[in-house]
Amino acid sequence: MTYASSLAPPFGRALCAMITPFTEEGALDLDGAQRLADRLVGQGCDGLVLSGTTGESPTTSDAEKAVLIRAVREAVGDRAALVAGVGTADTRHTVQLTLEAEKAGADGALVVTPYYSRPPQDAVEAHFREVADASGLPLMLYDIPGRTGTRIEPDTMIRLSSHPRIVAVKDCSYDFLGAQKVVDRTDLAYYAGCDEHILALYAVGAAGYVSTVANAAPARLRAVVDAFDAGDTREAARLQQRATPLIESMMSAGLPGAVTAKAILNALSLPAGLVRPPLRPAGAEARAALHAAYEALTAR
């Protein structure tokens, strides 16, 4: 059973891992967040992930995370699903953030594998089950071992799929075979978390994508899945390939996605602002390369 052909994805198909705008003084820019969210939804995003990796979740407070959800909900209403990043290295803290996200109006919670402590798979599974049991929010598991040091192994995901509130996966595992195995054996909605995999995963039954690059070019990425849904696979491939230089510039040039996305948005005079330490803004050379890649994609 594939989401691309038969099921309605729980959070939409085209999701943006939205940056968290800050003011020049480094404070949360709620007005900017509302304007950016409205733009993203207006240009094809039917879901927004708040306070994820790109949203600089390690450097925002619990209170900032909650108020950001409320502000974005006010801006987009029911036009888009809101998925709140709640993952931490501490199960109790993750449960607390999930409950606060639910109260603030989130539609779902993005839960990353606990990092640094590197729990074994039985502990990983217990962590996710405890979070899922704690609230009424559906969960999107976030598999990104390059940052956490720990996989959510395919067999663990298959077991977790039996939980009624574990409904989706954001996949940054770079394990295409493992992803296909879970897509084939469960009804979990798989979302490509790496922009270069949007079409590849979608073509084998993924539900859609959670994209950092969508901060800069939301309509261009939405066009990839729209073309595939229309049956024009050649056009979908062409559009994915056209986005490759920007994807590479933003995601594989040695800078985190929060840094590169904010560099482009600032250049376009869109809400973004500074990144919080330990991240640092992109330098002049990187900004020029990012802007050139953006212009090349959007000029035609």
Automatic annotation (TrEMBL):
Belongs to the DapA family. It catalyses: L-aspartate 4-semialdehyde + pyruvate = (2S,4S)-4-hydroxy-2,3,4,5-tetrahydrodipicolinate + H2O + H(+). The keyword Amino-acid biosynthesis applies. Gene3D superfamilies: Aldolase class I. GO terms for molecular function: 4-hydroxy-tetrahydrodipicolinate synthase activity. Keywords: Amino-acid biosynthesis, Cytoplasm, Diaminopimelate biosynthesis, Lyase, Lysine biosynthesis, Schiff base. Catalyzes the condensation of (S)-aspartate-beta-semialdehyde [(S)-ASA] and pyruvate to 4-hydroxy-tetrahydrodipicolinate (HTPA). Pyruvate binds at residues 54, 210. The record marks 53, 116 as: Part of a proton relay during catalysis. It is an enzyme of class 4 (lyase). Pfam families: DHDPS. SUPFAM superfamilies: Aldolase (SSF51569). The active site is at residues 142, 170. This is 4-hydroxy-tetrahydrodipicolinate synthase. It comes from Streptomyces actuosus. Its EC number is 4.3.3.7. It is found in: Cytoplasm. Coiled coil: none annotated. Homotetramer; dimer of dimers. Pathway: Amino-acid biosynthesis; L-lysine biosynthesis via DAP pathway; (S)-tetrahydrodipicolinate from L-aspartate: step 3/4. Its main location: cytoplasm.
